[in-house]
Amino acid sequence: MNRRGILTLVTCVLASSLAFIDSSVVNVGLPAIGRSMDAGHSGLQWLIGGYLLPLSALLLLGGSLGDRFGRRRMLVLGILMFGVASVVCGLAPNLETLIAARFAQGVGAAFLMPNSLAILGVTFEGERRGRAIGIWAAAGAATGAGGPILGGWLIDSFSWRMIFFINIPLASAAIYLALRNVQADALRVGTFALDWPGALLVTIGLGAVTWALIGVTGPQGWSSEGVVGLAVGGLLLLTFIVWERHKGESAMMPLTLFGSSDFIGLTLLTFLLYGALGCLLVLLPYVLIVAGHYSSTQAGAALLPLPLVLAVISPWLGSLAGRFGTRLFLIIGPSVVAVGFLLMLRMGADVDYWSQVMPALGVIALGMSFVVAPLTTAIFASVDKKHTGSASGLNNAIARTGGLVGTAVLGQVLVYQGESLTRGFHGAVIVAACVCLAAGACALLVHSDSGRHQL
Fold this sequence. Notes:
The chain is mainly α. The chain has 17 helices and no strands. It has helices at 3-37, 41-69, 71-91, 95-123, 126-157, 162-165, 167-181, 196-215, 224-247, 261-290, 296-301, 305-324, 327-343, 353-369, 372-381, 388-410, 418-442.
């Protein structure tokens, strides 16, 4: 790996870390924000969903815009939007402003995430690509789960508002490095017409579905507005599929991708596994703080096994997947994660970290190490280079939508207090374990040599 390659990797890691840090830090800050702004269950759900909604809905567009207008250009734009929105979050005078700024953060993240990964996809090849993606995944996980330690300390020592201001130096450094070290893409005006109707249909459709999933998780359960939103979103997504079929290979997301059992299996695995993981990252810090009486700093530090194990193992496994294929990794990983979720059933009303929490998180992290880099490697191997941005956007959109669905369906646990909170958490981890086993079964659709050839 030459100097430019190393600096490109550092830039992409730093940029994507913004999105990873922000989501995990806010999870730790939910109780403090709820007390400060008198936010109930619905408000807390919108703090998470307000970020995930545009992130889920616009990732496909963000990847396609990178393919069309240049990945570096869209990466810098996304970082800039994210940084400005972070300032607004830190200064927000009320809950409504905070949620709106979180929405803007999600838009910025939707532009920067797929393009940071797509830049790696076109910069490296073969085993070096697998290793680069493994480093990207490990570093992103490390900052995403290490951020809550700093964020928890800032909350305990100063204010929850400080957790948003830590994004400013990161965003500034990422923009500087991107402009200095990432090779600019040429505008593809004549050879690549952006599929604006498809982008509009999938954006509004996914937005309606995610809005409905957030809206139906209040104390009253399903609402009439949620049902309507789900129906409208589903209709728009079906229309999107019909439109993309009409566009053929010029579509934003060519449906020929779904003619492969590899791609179908990878998409289902991503949705299910990241849905379970997203639920965990929201519920566990909340349970530790509310039921276990942990401080915000302690709750943030409790997540350390995730980044530590990923940082050590993920690059190595990413390299192996680039050489030997991904199927076995993708079968083993989700099954190990399921075991980790079941170990959390040992958590009682008095939560003991060393005997109850840490072993479970260690097993979950080990299982995710088998999946993160090999999964991304397999996704890239299933498309040609001109669609790497769209493929990256789709894979990230599926992952974030899975996290949103998991949080929306199981987020009802946030309503409970005392022993009911512990029982609700136990029910959530049982569901999550079953979902992980289903994700492992989806890997059976993936061919053993996936990751070593292109479709």
